[in-house]
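To: structure subgroup
Subject: Chain for Friday's discussion

All,

I'm putting the inputs and outputs inline so they're searchable in the archive.
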Amino acid sequence: MRASDRNALDRWLAINQPRLRLSTDAAGCTSVSGHFDLIDIQEGEHPVVYDAFEIDFTFPKNFPKCLPTVFETGGRIRRQSDNHINCDGSICYGVPVIIAARRPDLKLSTFFSEILNDYFLGYLNFLEFGSWPFGEVGHGYVGAIEYMAELLKCEANQNKVKALLYLLQLKHRRDRWSCACGSGKRLGNCCRRSLNKAALCITRQEAARLCPLIELYNNEAGDTAKKSELMAKLETLQNQMKCNGIARLKAGRQMAKSTHSIRKNLVQSASCRVVIRLIDSVGAQFKPTVQPDLCGMRL
């Protein structure tokens, strides 16, 4: 982050979010941590803080082309998908690639005042009424396709969404072309009507930015899914090893207990035999002798 942008953000936070702190590490990355306040502003009255969430994240150097990964660190939001929490524990405030592509001029202050603010407001509404007021889509690549399908006013089919984005970035689209969705039909007999509707929703420049990002996001989502699968398998193996270790420990303790009992019995029996032998030997030493007298009578 440039020094001028950091100073501007620092001034904005001092006025609008005074409980958030900026820090810069040795690599020059700017981090934000502290309490994000939800403020109610009524005309003619002082702003009132009615709720707050503790957050922590780092701004990427290529912001806004790449948006930050934000974590709620206060423990107020449970780590589950219904609360729009990603698998890595970060909050899902939207589809980052689409936000970055549609808003290339996104400001640092706008990220706080609109994107983060809308997420936490939506979460409070979800807690009270059970729904997200600004709509919701899935996570990851599936969520990106659902979001784009809603934006382009078509069904949530990845082939159709990618085909429309590809066609929208072109200056000319001929009906005699084979449709890019892979149906084998001509464009005029397949996606032409959907293409005309989508052209009213986003510009050619937006489509040109979104088309490669969606493909990249697809690859990253695949890598993330593989990583999650491997992590799940690793966790399962660790749990099995832990269970096996506990079972072995219990068996070892039981064996040790049995061994101790056997040894105790052996020691006790050996002690008894030793005592008996000692008694016999002592008794043999003090056994009275029988001596006959001269008259042949016992004394």
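Points worth raising on Friday:
The mean pLDDT is 79.
Helices lie at 3-16, 96-102, 108-129, 140-152, 158-168, 192-198, 204-285.

D.
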